[in-house]
Amino acid sequence: MSTPRQRRIGVEPRAVPPDAGLAAERTSLSWARTWAVVGVNIILIAKLVAETSVFWASVFSLLTVVPLLALLRVQRHHERRVGRFVRGAEVPQTRAAHNVGLVVLVVVMATCGLVAVLVSLSN
Amino acid sequence: MTGQAGQTGQAPEGWRPRALRDGEEPDPRFTLANERTFLAWIRTSLGLTAGAVAMEAFAGDEIPEIVRTPLACILLVLAAVLAIVAFRRWIRIEASMRHQRPLPMPQASILLVLGISIGAVLLIVAILGGTFA
């Protein structure tokens, strides 16, 4: 009885890769979706704020620069983290500061929206 | 804020709240799952913001101002509160995993359901009250 021919050299067939559940990929996609929704919100709020005054529109446009810079930094850190997980089955803990930043961004955007709604009401 | 070196002596792990410094490091898969759940809550919060802003910016006179403005305000406040609650929940889950404790109940769901229910009831009352006539 002959054994089946091995197709890949050096790969143990029974070995389970550290990221068998594709946790890294799912988390990366989750971040990507979050940034996409942040982008949609920026566009929507910009439309609302632009109707109120030039002052508020310029304040909001300054605020939008921050998430765009944060996006690059958070994304780079995330790629490094999940890279370590895929290769070595270990992952550094989520940066609490990044999550705080994201929450602050959401609160700032909701506040800008609220201010725009109230300003347009008083006009 | 103080930088803290990782346990392996590699890159610094950044600032950590006290709750995330005690106990044992959890399974990496669970940490990533907790992160995804936090991001899902944040997207829910951003969805509420988008809904409120879109209603205010694009609904025009289709929805009367007396209904539109309070509804938008409720949704925007709920979105801000939900984001903060989501962060608190992320920390609590992470702390529970570090001490092998049962995970906390999702209190944010109750908040979300209450907020959306109030918004829906407001809209129904407005429709029945003939504001769209």
Structure commentary:
The complex is a heterodimer of chains A (123) and B (133). Chain A is built from 3 helices and no strands. Chain A is mainly α and 123 residues long. The termini of chain A are far apart. Chain B is 65% helix and 0% strand. Chain B has one domain (27-128). Chain B contains 3 helices and no strands. Chains A and B meet through α1, α2 and α3 of A and α1 and α2 of B. Chain A: Keywords: Membrane, Transmembrane, Transmembrane helix.
Helix and strand layout, with pairings?
The complex is a heterodimer of chains A (123) and B (133).
Chain A: H1 23-50, H2 54-88, H3 96-122
Helix pairs in contact in A: 1-2, 1-3, 2-3
Chain B: H1 28-58, H2 65-98, H3 107-128
Helix pairs in contact in B: 1-2, 2-3
Question: Keywords for this structure?
Answer:
heterodimer; A: 123 residues; mainly alpha; 3 helices; 73% helix; elongated; B: 133 residues; 65% helix; 0% strand; disordered N terminus; DUF202 domain-containing protein (chain A); membrane (chain A); transmembrane (chain A); transmembrane helix (chain A)
What's this, in brief?
With 123 residues, chain A is mostly helical. Chain A has helices at residues 23-50, 54-88, 96-122.
Mean pLDDT of chain B: 82
Question: For the CA atoms, what is the radius of gyration of chain B?
Answer: 20 Å
Helix content of chain A: over 70%
Query: How many whole angstroms does the radius of gyration of chain A measure?
Result: 22 Å
Unreliable segments of 5+ consecutive residues of chain B: 1-11
Tell me the distance between the termini of chain A: 88 Å
The backbone outline of chain B, from C-alpha atoms, is elongated
Element pattern of chain A in H and E: HHH
Subcellular location (chain B): Cell membrane
Keywords (chain B): Cell membrane, Membrane, Transmembrane, Transmembrane helix
Region (Disordered) (chain B): 1-28
Biased composition (Polar residues) (chain B): 1-10
